[in-house]
Amino acid sequence: MKNARKLAYISYDEMLELATLGAQVLNNRSVEMAKKYGIQLEVLSSMTRKPGTIVKEATKVEKMLISGIAKDEDVARISIIGVPDRPGLAFKIFSKLSAKNINVDIILQSVGRNGTKDISFTVSQANLKETIDILNPYVELIGATSVVYDENVAKVSIVGAGMETHPGTAAQMFEALYEANINIQMIATSEIKISVLIDRSDADKAVTAVHNKFFSEAMEA
Fold first, then answer.
1. Bridge partners (DSSP) listed for residue 116
2. Which region among 47-61, 63-77, 107-121 has the lowest average model confidence (pLDDT)?
3. Is the pLDDT of residue 103 over 80?
4. How would residue 61 be classed by pLDDT, with cut points 50, 70 and 90?
5. 150-174 per-residue burial string, b: 16 or more CB within 10 A, e: under 16
6. Closest among 73, 55, 34 to 161, alpha carbons compared
């Protein structure tokens, strides 16, 4: 990223989110252990001897709106089409994947119409084939229509503790993607994270657009 800048501090929770979402900086397990025992981490460059970014417990004074942006291309979208609109079927579907230790990330369920609904979710590329193999025979049993998938997707996420108290963050991210003519397929949020699923060919453009929206405006403020 051309205009990337070093952070002086970042919280454990923000770093955990970034690590989990694909930022290749720290292993999430190392951050979990540091948080558990209250140990500050310093992320240093192997190329220079300059001070790095401190990973530590969050403080109200240091909360930034956005601390980082992550891109993950190791993702695939799966959709189960025409699932009967009955209680318990989502549980049965995802429990089968859980039994095989397949982690599911973003989940989107359409509003039931004409007695059916569609359920879409993401898994890692490594788990795609196994997931399809598990679902194909089961789909017939529950009366769904089909299973379709798309490997040409990517997940772009923003992370920041400041989102908890700053309304409109999602709108700013979506505006940046709209201005870059990037279509959003799925959305997932938490208190300090917003993730979107987009076409993989737009991933780098999306990261640049979102970075410019948040960090350029912050520097101009």
1. 84, 113
2. 47-61
3. yes
4. very low
5. beebbbbbbbbbebeeeeebeebbb
6. 55
Task: Supply angle C-alpha 168, 194, 166, rounded to 5.
Answer: 30
In terms of DSSP bridges, do strands 153-159 and 9-11 run parallel, antiparallel, or are they unpaired? unpaired
Contacts of 217 (CB under 8 A, 6+ apart): none
- Is the four-CA dihedral 51, 56, 62, 65 of positive or negative sign? positive
The one-letter amino acid code at 99 reads A
CA-CA distance, 179 to 214, in Å (whole number)? Answer: 14
Specify the length of the chain in residues: 221
| Long-range contacts formed by 181-189: CB under 8 A, 24+ apart | 182/206, 182/209, 185/77, 185/153, 186/77, 186/106, 186/108, 186/120, 186/122, 187/106, 187/108, 188/105, 188/106, 188/107
Task: Measure the CA angle with vertex 76, ends 29 and 134; round to 5°.
Answer: 95
Q: Please, are residues 146 and 81 in contact by the beta-carbon 8 Å criterion?
A: yes
> Are 53 and 6 within 8 A, CB to CB?
yes
Cα 87 to the center of its chain, rounded Å: 27
Averaged pLDDT for residues 149-171: 89
Between these two residues, 49 and 203, which has the higher pLDDT value?
Answer: 203
Amino acid, single-letter form, for residue 199: D
Q: What pLDDT shows up at residue 43?
A: 74
Structure tokens at 129: 């084939």
- Of 4-13, 69-78, 128-137, 204-213, the one with minimum mean pLDDT is 4-13
